[in-house]
Amino acid sequence: MDALFERTRTKMEKCITYLEKDYASIRAGRANPAILDRVMVDYYGVPTPINQMAAVSVPEARLLLIQPWDTSMLKEIEKAINTSEIGINPQNDGKVIRLSFPQLTEEHRKELTKDVAKKGEEAKVAIRNIRRDAIDDLKKMKKNSEITEDDLDYGEEEIQNITDEFIKLAEETAKKKEEEVLSL
Q1: Checking DSSP bridges between strand 54-60 and strand 97-100, what pairing results, if any?
Q2: Which of 2, 91, 94, 116 could form a disulfide with 98 if both were Cys (CB 3.0 to 4.6 A apart)?
Q3: What residues does 56 pair with on adjacent strands?
Q4: CB atoms near residue 140 (< 10 Å)
Q5: Which residues of the chain, if any, have pLDDT below 70?
Q6: H/E element holding 144?
């Protein structure tokens, strides 16, 4: 039964990790290098993340600086950013690419908080689905006489405790991101 608890915990941790990565791609008015994680550049025929082919720095609160190690890739990086869905126009000066993050409007912030809440809710649903599967596994074990009725009750209670822990973590993660989006 301990293996089931560990498997359940691992799956729920993956949900939280995915949620955090998802939130990293939401731009909140501040420059965040994580926004470029999903942008792939055609590097001599191989899709490559920007951070593997350039130094990405944050010299100011709303400015990202991309300095490629191979300056011949500037145009390719610029093209990849333009075709991505981050919504920021790169400025290429021949040596580096600058991404200026505009101040978000109040209306846009509210839209982003709705998106943050939706993603948080999706993570909680995924966690609850993992709980349901784990409890189904426990019931199968009981049906196959692998565990007793008391073990089943204990197992369901333990699965619920693990679920509560991760639901709370998902809510805290969402709340933190909402505060980040709403802060000026």
Answers
A1: unpaired
A2: 91
A3: 66
A4: 11
A5: 27-29, 184
A6: none
